[in-house]
């Protein structure tokens, strides 16, 4: 409604009794952003042109709609109660100039959107400020498993477990012993039992805290195996035939290769998807398996969750997991080949330093490790992969900078550098080995950690399995009333 130019709208001091003009409505909307916090940032002068545009939509309206009289005077002067606005007497013209200069269409907007636009802009700013503090609102879930075959070695620790321990406060963690994967290859039942406890003890000795992370054995949460079967039934055979690791391991086993080894990647997908994991620490050799897990999750969601008429009612069951990239510099290579990753499955015992190796064994392995005939010690020479690997181990165990290390060792020969490296490795592993010896014989404590870890993991796993079976149309015993 056009404003009335009658003097009855004005108080004795010239201020406005009631907001009857569109400019007044606009300025009232502007008041909503002139909070003490906004004032502290410089009031309206600190606002961007796009935000100012939200509070001047009426400036290009016809004069009668803007409350302007035929004589060109404003129908009622606007005196804001806010000290920020009171200090800005030429506010309407300022808003108009900034608004129209930045957005010629600003005047076409409806003034009724002012308050809404202010709230939206403030919400976006608040959200941006919340993200800028670097702290996620909800911790992302990370899962990782280690097979109880062979010993954990220096590469496992420096490349993964140490970083898991350091990041426990940043993520929601699920760390488990994948004993179901271990039986895809020929194994000894007695060794499997002891090795499972050994891995758990090493987890704890390396700093994994059961108060912050769930530690458990895979087979203690039966939902892993059941979900694996359900995912088997939605995964095309062609996808499995492309798995590189199966082809490599099948060649070694010959005709004795098991269906379990062929199905290994789907069990790994079940391990990931059962916990709705967002991040999975993987090496290059496992990236293909993570991509398979993502493909299976998408296929399942497409088959059973797309339509609201389906049992899932349009709600996806699985989320897409992402790879968690570990910090650079912790990739530890074989002591016998600087271009191959240090591995538990390598038949050459001298290729790795096990976390359980004694001081004498560690010194002998380093003394015998492969080197080269180049003079001096240097980093990142592509012709000297073993040299780079040994320097990486030295840095990871000592915590020193490259510059500091090179200043000390650049002119050394291997006879001088190897004993120095052995000292650093032995000193770094000593507290881990001492803690491991305490834990591995304390079965009562290990049982407690594993029991509580499995119980916590099963709560999440059973919920995901229920969603999966409901989406596929299975009935449950709870339906039988």
Structure described in brief:
The protein is mainly alpha-helical and 481 residues long.
Q: How many beta-strand runs?
A: 5
Number of helices: 19
| N to C succession of SSEs | HHHHHHEHEHHEHHHHEHEHHHHH
User: Regions with pLDDT < 50 over 5+ consecutive residues?
Assistant: 1-41, 43-130
Radius of gyration: 33 Å
Largest sheet, order of strands side by side? 1-2-3
Average pLDDT number: 77
Helical proportion? 40-55%
Q: What structural class do you assign from the helix and strand content?
A: mainly alpha
Protein architecture, described:
α10 packs across α13. A 3-stranded parallel sheet has the order 1-2-3. It has a two-stranded parallel ribbon with strand order 4-5. By secondary structure, it is mainly alpha-helical. Helix content is 49%, strand content 5%. The chain contains 19 helices and 5 strands.
